[in-house]
Specification:
Length: 144
C-alpha cells in the first residue's frame, strides 16, 4: 500500500512539473523562477486592406491562422491566440517569438507587403512588472 502511495505522489509531482514548465516555471535543484527560458510575448493587431479581406474571404479565417502559424514556426516562434474582431482592428494575435528583433522583422515584413497595417505591442508578465516596480529610478519631473 505504501509503495502505491509513493507512486501516486511521484506521478502528481511529475504532472505538476510538466504544468509548471508549460507556464515557463523552471523546476530543478534551485528555487523555481518564473519566466526563465520563456520567449517574450507580443500582441499583433492587424487591420486588413480591402484586397487582403478578399483573400480572407477566399481562404477562410482558419487558412489565415495556419499561414500565421507557419510564418511564426519559421522564425522559432509560436501562436498562442488568434482572433478576428469587429471594429478598426480586424485580427488580434498573441505570439511568442525569440526576441524584439524577430518581432520587429515580422512587423516590418507584414506591413511592407501591403496587405495589413500592423501594430506590435510587447506584453509583460505580472512578475516583470513586480521586478520593474522594485528597481530604483532617480527621476525628477520637469520644473521641480
Amino acid at each position: 500500500m505504501q509503495a502505491g502511495r509513493r507512486h501516486k505522489s511521484r506521478t502528481r509531482r511529475t504532472e505538476l512539473s510538466l504544468d509548471l514548465e508549460r507556464l515557463g516555471v523552471v523546476v530543478g535543484n534551485s528555487k523555481p523562477r518564473l519566466g526563465v527560458g520563456r520567449m517574450p510575448k507580443y500582441l499583433f493587431k492587424g487591420s486588413y486592406s480591402p484586397e487582403s479581406l478578399a483573400g480572407v474571404l477566399k481562404e477562410g479565417g482558419t487558412g489565415r491562422r495556419k499561414a500565421v502559424e507557419k510564418m511564426l514556426a519559421g522564425v522559432g516562434g509560436k501562436l498562442e491566440a488568434f482572433y478576428y474582431a469587429f471594429g478598426e482592428t480586424d485580427v488580434w494575435a498573441i505570439v511568442d517569438v525569440p526576441d524584439d528583433t524577430t518581432a520587429a522583422a515580422l512587423s516590418m515584413t507584414i506591413s511592407s507587403a501591403g496587405g495589413a497595417g500592423i501594430e506590435t505591442v510587447k506584453l509583460l508578465t505580472p512578475e516583470q512588472i513586480d521586478e520593474a516596480a522594485e528597481r530604483p529610478i532617480d527621476y525628477r519631473p520637469p520644473g521641480k
